[in-house]
Amino acid sequence: MADSALLVMDVQRDIVDIADDGSGYLPRLRRAIDGAWAASIPVIYVVIGLRPGHPDVSTRNRVLTAAVRDGLFTEGNPGTEIHPDVAPRQGDIVVTKRRASAFSGSDLDLVLRARGIDSLVLTGIATSGVVLHTLCQANDLDFGLTVLADACLDTDPEVHRVLTGKLFPQWADVVGVEDWLDAIAP
Predict the structure, then answer these.
(1) How far is CA 162 from the centre of its chain?
(2) What pTM was estimated for this model as a whole?
(3) What is the structure's pLDDT at 1?
(4) CATH of 4-184, one of 2.60.40.420, 3.30.980.10, 3.40.50.150, 3.40.50.850
(5) For position 70, what pLDDT does the model report?
(6) Environment class of residue 144 by beta-carbon count within 10 Å: exposed (0-12), middle (13-18) or buried (19+)?
(7) C-alpha distances in angstroms, 84 versus 32, 100, 103?
């Protein structure tokens, strides 16, 4: 799996506070991250960060307008930090994006291509946000795709179920963390 990378997307303090339902999401994600490191699969963190004063947010963007009104996503705020339970280690790459997709307003594609990565393993919050948008764009960019269904989380469990059970399998392998760890074990 030398051509793969694990993307850990939008697992930031404020987002976890809103979405985490106490189902053990962070420990499962931590297992996936530790497994990737053990298998020498690069772990790339993706965070959403908007400029102070929000000159990069249009009032036509309903989601971001509501988020900044609620004080979310501003660069430098403690809530935009990656949650400490899944924090990067020295040498992990952190990419900042400006919209829903991990590719939007970021240098993610450049980082991936420079490293020869052509296959992505997607995790993150929310399934209906960053995971969906990144999956669609990565599919259009011809990346091989895997989604770790139980390392994705959404505030609406039914939306998560429909996306991971019906939509995502059209473009990606959808598996659980434990099955993926078994597949990549050295």
Answers:
(1) 18
(2) 0.95
(3) 45
(4) 3.40.50.850
(5) 78
(6) middle
(7) 15, 22, 24
